[in-house]
Amino acid sequence: xxxxxxxxxxxxxxGLVAANELRRRLSRDHRIMIVEKNSQHAFAPSFLxxxxxxxxxxxxxxxxxQLVLKxxxxxxxxxxxxxxxxxxxxxxxxxxxxxxxVVALGAExxxxxxxGLAESAQTFYTFDGAAKLRNVLRDLNGGKxxxxxxxxxxxxxxxxxxxxxxxxxxxxxxGLRNKVDIHLFTPEPLPMPVAGPExxxxxxxxxxDRSVIFHPLQKLTEVNPATRTISFEGxxxxxxxxxxxxxxxxxPLVVREAGLANQGGWVPVDSATLATRDxxxxxxxxxxxxxxxxxxxxxxxxxxxxAGVFAHAQALVxxxxxxxxxxxxxxxxxxSGEGYCMLEAGxxxxxxxxxxxxxxxxxxIKLRQIGRSWHLGKVLFEKWWLATPGVKKESLQLLMELGAxxxxxxxxxx
Length: 414
Ligand SMILES: Cc1cc2nc3c(=O)[nH]c(=O)nc-3n(C[C@H](O)[C@H](O)[C@H](O)COP(=O)(O)OP(=O)(O)OC[C@H]3O[C@@H](n4cnc5c(N)ncnc54)[C@H](O)[C@@H]3O)c2cc1C
Known about the structure:
- This protein is α/β, with parallel strands linked by helices and 414 residues long.
- The chain has 10 helices and 24 strands.
- It has helices at residues 13-25, 47-52, 117-120, 127-139, 159-173, 197-209, 253-257, 308-326, 372-386, 391-407, and strands at residues 5-9, 31-36, 40-42, 61-63, 72-76, 79-83, 88-91, 94-97, 100-103, 108-109, 143-149, 180-185, 212-215, 220-224, 229-232, 238-239, 242-246, 249-250, 267-268, 281-283, 288-289, 338-346, 349-356, 364-371.
- The radius of gyration is 21 Å and the shape is globular.
- 46% of the residues are buried.
C-alpha cells in the first residue's frame, strides 16, 4: 500500500483527537502530522475554575507534545496558506504536502472588532484572561458586574451562564453577594436557544434564582472606557464597574483565504462526513458551519453549537473515514449530532443537557436536574483529557465509561 501523509491543522480538541485516532488506526507507513502554533494546550472548560481560583494555571495546561501519541509528528508553527490545488500547506516552519487534510483551526477571538471592547473588558474565554480575572474578582468588593456576550456565534453556548452562576457563588462565599449586582447581556432571546425554549427557560431560571439579572436581545455596539458605559443597538446604555466579555469570534484568516469558508467565514461541511467541497479535505469543530434542522432560517442562521464535545466526536468520525479510505474499505462512520454539556452552577453542582442536535424536524435536547454527579463527571473528564496517553489515561477512561453507564449518558471518548 502506498504511504500517505495526513496533515492536521490545529492541535486543539479536534486536532488532537483526530491525529491520535489516525495513529491508532493506521500503520507506521503513513505519516500523521499536526501543525499547531502554540506549544501549550489548555483545557478550556476549566477556564471557569481558573477564574474562581479552584484551579491553578499549571493544573489545566500541558505541553501539546504530552497529549499526542508516539508516531504523531508535531510541527510547532503557524499555518499561513492552504493551497488546495497543490495539496500543500505553507507554515511558518516550512511547507508540507498532504494526501488528506483535516482543518481543525477553531475560532479566534476578535475583541478589536467592537470599539472600546479590547481595552475595557476582562474575559474568561482565554487562559490568560481567566487567570487575570481571578485577581480582579478577588480584589472587587462591590459594584456592578456586566457579563456581555458581544456577538453570535460564540463557543460553548452554556459558558456565559456558567460564568455568571460561578461569579455569583464566589461572592456568596465571600459574604459579599448583596454588595454586587451581576448583569448578563446577550444578543440571544434566551439562554442556549439552539436547545429550544424549554431548556432555555430552565437555564434562565437557574441564573435568575442566583439573582443574576438577565438582559436578552442586546446587541453590543461599543464600549466607552472613560465613562465605563456599554451601548447596545436600540437599547439603554449601561454603566458598569467591571466588564467581562465573551469577545466576538471569527475564523482564522488562513481558512478564509483558502476559499473553504462561507460568507460568514465558517467552513460548510457535509454534516455526516465532515467533508468540505474538496474530497480530500475535512473540517471539524468550531471552524465548521452545520445548519440545524428546523432551527435554520437564512436571515437568522442557527448552527450546530461550537463545542468541544462536537469537535471530539467529529474528529473520531473523520479519522476513521480517512483510515478506511486509505485501507480501501468503504468509509462507514458518520457524525450523528449527539452531544452533551455539563453546566456548572456553583457550589460544586452542575446541570446536564444532552440530546440529538441534528434530529429531524428539530433538535431534541433535555436538561437533567442540577446535582453533584454532573460536576464530578466534568472533573473526571478534565483529568482524563489532560492525562498523557498511557496506563493512567486508560484507567480514567474505564472510570468514565463506568460512570456514563451508571448515569445512562454517552461517553464520547477516543
Ligand atoms: C470558557 C470556555 C468553556 C468551554 N466549555 C466547554 C464545555 O464545557 N464543553 C464543550 O464541549 N466545549 C466547551 N468549550 C468549547 C471548546 O473549548 C471548543 O469548542 C473546542 O476547543 C473546539 O475545538 P476545535 O478543535 O475546533 O478548536 P480549538 O480547540 O480551539 O483548537 C484550535 C487550535 O488551532 C490552533 N491554531 C489556530 N490557528 C492556527 C494557525 N494558523 N496555525 C496553527 N495553529 C493554529 C490553536 O492554537 C488551537 O490550538 C468551552 C470554551 C470556552 C472558551
